[in-house]
Amino acid sequence: MAFYSCNRYRLLVLVLLGLIMWQVFQLLPKKQVQVTEDIVELEDDRYNKHKKDKVKVRVYYEALCPDSKHFFIKHLSPVTQKLSEFLDVTLVPYGKATTKEKNGQYIFNCQHGEEECYANKIHACAIHALNNTTQAVKITECMIIDNLDADAALERCAKDVKVDTDQIIGCASGEQGSALLKKHGDDTHIISPTFIPTITLNGSKGNQAAILKNFLLEVCKLIDMPLPPPCL
Hints:
CATH superfamily of the largest domain: Glutaredoxin
Distance between the termini: 80 Å
Order of helices and strands: HHEHEEEHHHHHEHH
Helix content: 55-70%
Strand content: 5-15%
Number of strands: 5
Low-confidence stretches: 29-44
Shape: elongated
Largest sheet: 3 strands, mixed
Number of domains: 2
């Protein structure tokens, strides 16, 4: 009896050991996956600080200004595409225009004529309707390439960003467009630009020559380490 009791005891111990080992092996792969997931998450979060603390870019420009056109095409659009997660871009279409109020209505006088005033309103209304940095830069860069006929430019460029052109044209033709352009005028007069376009980075309009020459470099100088690949 003692022999059989001893065997039963050993068998029970072996079964328990087997169960324990099975449980251990069950847990090991899960631990490994969790560690891998943590590493991937850590790598993805490397730039989270920068994405939360974005470089604030404000572009004061005119819809028919050749220098504004050059900056949008050669600098603003490509840099925004590369660093969209690191930039907070505000577009201010007004430039060297002036605003007067007569009989409760705003009257604008723009550097390149009435066509520019209307094109500025189209830009202002499109920016307001999209309410998205990347999309706003995309449509304004497309329109500014050929903005003499602002309605045609809008129709040509709206397809890529899927925005209601009728809503934007209605805005630009009415009181809302005038109110938006007046606001852009107020914002522009605060910094009193001597050249259009003028670009501010984190509220500073210093070093304009460098910004207009190499916008990417000047933006990258304001991003803390680790720098994103486009800045390397």
